[in-house]
Amino acid sequence: MDRHISAPLKKEDIDTLKSGDYVYISGTIYVARDAAHKRMDELLDAGGELPIELKDNVIYYMGPSTAREGRPIGSAGPTTASRMDKYTPRLLDLGLKGMIGKGRRSAEVKDAIVRNGCVYFAAVGGAGAILSKAIISSEVVAYEDLGTEAIRKLEVKDFPCIVIIDKDGNNLYETVIEEGR
User: Fold this and answer.
1) Residue 116 in 3-state DSSP?
2) Nearest one of 78, 70, 51, 69 to 151, comparing CA atoms
3) If you count Cβ atoms within 10 Å of the first and of the last residue's Cβ in the chain, which end, N or C, has fewer?
4) Which residues of the chain have a pLDDT value below 50?
């Protein structure tokens, strides 16, 4: 089923998303990868406040290439989500509602998704140039010293992805294996 939703995410949208749904996201999402996640985790350990609001927001695991002239961002394909798994349950417990990446997630992440009523989306790996066309603007909002791993705020229009793990823990990767597809 094709769905058009907005970000930040609304509970009523999350509640109706099912594993396998094709989704087009419009609105504000954030970009953060390994180094930014590590830095946010260290900041939380020290009692600090995160540089972005997590409540109802989406983090896209992506490191963009340099933007071409006239474009807000270069190629913007997803990175492997499992690299953020050790940080993710904590962020979900703090209000993050969605993640976009590629690949499998750990049992701990799946449990945190169910516990918090969240969703894990996948974007198509290898399609970064096409995905970048759905990005209207890109702005570094934290950790500029990390270069391509800085936290960015993106405005997106009809950003295409697929629900992999829904709020009930249904996992498309597991379903596909069980069905022998």
Assistant:
1) helix
2) 51
3) C
4) none
CA angle 115, 118, 124 (to 5 degrees): 135
Strand ranges (DSSP E) for 8-150?
22-31, 58-60, 98-101, 119-122, 135-142
CA distance 164 to 19: 5
DSSP 147: G
Q: Do residues 131 and 100 make contact, with C-beta atoms less than 8 angstroms apart? A: no
For CA atoms 142, 67, 136, 132, the dihedral sign is negative
Distance CA 175, CA 11 (A): 24
- Side chain identity, residue 145: D
Q: What is the pLDDT of residue 179?
A: 56
Query: What is the predicted pLDDT for the residue at 63?
Result: 83
pTM of the model: 0.94
pLDDT at 127: 84
Take residue 117 and report the two structure tokens written for it.
């009523």
Residue-level pLDDT at 166? 98
Q: CA-CA distance, 122 to 166, in Å (whole number)?
A: 12
User: What residue ranges do the domains of the chain occupy?
Assistant: 2-180
Q: How far apart are CA 31 and CA 16, in angstroms?
A: 25
Report cis status (omega within 30 of 0) of the bond before 8.
yes
Amino acid identity of 15? D
CATH number for the domain running over 2-180: 3.20.130.10
